[in-house]
Amino acid sequence: MFVLKNAWMSLERHPWRSITTVLIALVVAFATLFGWSVQAAETTAAGPGEQALKPAAAIRPTAATLAKRNGADASWTKHYLSWDDYTKYATAAQSTNLQFSYTFLESAPVRQSSSLTAIAGSADQPASKTGGELTMTGLYTADALQDNEAGQIRIVSGKAIDYTGQAEANRHEALISQALATKNHLKVGDKVTVGRPGDATKTFTLTVRGIYAYTTPDASAPAKLAKDNRDNTIYTGYYAFNSNGLDANNAKGWAIPDLNIVFKLSSMGDYRQFTKAVKGAGLRATHEVSSSTVTRYRASIAPLADLAHCMRLGLLIAWIVGGLLLLALVILNLRNRGGEIGTGLVIGVSRGRLGWQFMLEVLMPTVAGAAIGILAGAFASGPLGSALASGHATAPDAGIIWHTIGWSALAAVVLAVIALVRVFLFQTTTLFTTREEATR
User: Fold this and answer.
1) Cα–Cα distance, 116 to 192 (Å, whole number)
2) Is 105 helix (H, G, I), strand (E, B) or coil?
3) Start-to-end Cα distance in the chain
4) pTM of the complete model
5) Exposure pattern of 62-96 as b/e (b: 16+ CB <10 Å)?
6) Domain segments of the chain as ranges
7) What is the tens place of the pLDDT at every residue in 74-132?
8) MacB-like periplasmic core domain spans which residues (predicted)?
9) What is the largest CA-CA distance in the chain?
10) For burial by CB atoms within 10 Å, which of 175, 188, 191, 294 has the most?
11) Which of 306, 366, 361 is nearest to 27 (CA)?
């Protein structure tokens, strides 16, 4: 009790020093718990989290190939993959005992009319060169929208179309963008007419079943041609696309449909195996295997990875600066205590009791600050990380909490031992020197 009382009285004599010690220990402990929680979340997301994905694989032109695309040059369609190409790749994948399902979407330019005028591009050219001012995309299943190059959509008015329905009514249903509907003063139920890319005189009529808006950012540059503006895309079911003559086998120029088959795989391991099989089957040098599933996932965890990177540097700074400040406060507390130590020894206080007192003067504020910091970190790491990492969970698990407690305790003990050493290094010969020397 004597030791504890003296230690407490010493802390009360220097309140700002004690408060500063508590605050520094609190900040370092909180930063440690939060930083380790973020790093653990990032490691999990980039490792087990990604491995748990069920990727959708597509075979599409590389970025270098797309950079050379000219939407007014119909020879570009030589880069389209045919059913025969996809059959070759699928057969190669199946030969490795790989199991998968698939969906697909096909696109072709279509021509505007008085009932449906496209949103203009920045450098439009005649439809005779581009094939049309609008793009019509036929979807085999609703899942195909998840792998749509233009982006994912949501219905803001009306209903989704029956993508696989073959009934006559389903063959004339379409979705148009909110921007296109606004420009043409269209609403659900209205009818619009568009023309085929190869022959402007051949038109067909569609009924607006729903109006959509994109839910993902537009990654493409501002469209020079109207047909390349994703808001000028008309979505239909595949049977509507086919029944209106856009999936013609003998088509030429821009009338050739751009076929995209998306393979549904069960794991990242299967995705890597599929990629290897396709390349082994003679994948064109202008194309690559990619996965919108993986791309979107990696983009979603990018804020978490950035935060983890910042926390690695932040923790290093916190540990170095915090450790040096705490050490400086301990040394400051031990200055000019020689007289106090000598007096204690003279009146019969043992070095052990004096050492324990000095240790308590260090342990009480550092342990209190660390405890508050760890408690705050345990409750705040999750919400704080979620706010800074776009919703990703960064709550610490029991292992991280105990790890932080252990290292905090070790740091406090090291500082306390420094105080203990000061007592045991005190030389009794100084008791017979001048007062000024004894208080050094």
Assistant:
1) 6
2) strand
3) 28
4) 0.80
5) eeebeeeeebbebebbebebeeebbebbbebbeee
6) 2-49+301-438, 56-290
7) 999 999 999 999 999 999 999 999 999 999 999 999 999 999 999 999 999 999 999 99
8) 20-278
9) 116
10) 175
11) 366
